[in-house]
Amino acid sequence: MWAANACTALRNGKCLELRYDGFSRVVEVHTVGISTAGHQIMSVWQVRGGSNSGERQGWKLMRLDEALGAVEIDEKSQAPRSGYKRNPKPFRSVICQI
């Protein structure tokens, strides 16, 4: 559902703001695609916001069907972040990536 928004933010070099697991988050999109289980997912670096794990910053893998209100914001992305790898293993196919 939000793949187009995520890919647009990635191409524009901007951050994406969304609600995920009940938390507001700001993320830098690195890869968007289809998981090996068939779900649309994205690999992101979370810049700030809440998290069930308590990790407010760092690498996250998010299912797009669980995200709400994903919009590009006027904040420059610092992608690619350290540790980024093209064509990561959780992805069966890639829609867009850095």
Which ranges are low-confidence, i.e. pLDDT below 50, for 5 or more consecutive residues? none
Structural class label: mainly beta
Number of DSSP strand runs? 6
Helix proportion: 10-25%
Short descriptors:
98 residues; 10% helix
Structural commentary:
This is WYL domain-containing protein. The protein has 98 residues and is mainly β. The chain is 10% helix and 54% strand. The protein has one helix and six strands. The chain is globular, with a radius of gyration of 12 Å.
In short:
This is WYL domain-containing protein. By secondary structure, this protein is mainly beta.
List the helices and strands and how they pair.
Elements: H1 3-12, E1 14-20, E2 23-35, E3 40-49, E4 58-63, E5 67-76, E6 91-97
Antiparallel strand pairs: 1-2, 1-5, 2-3, 2-6, 3-4
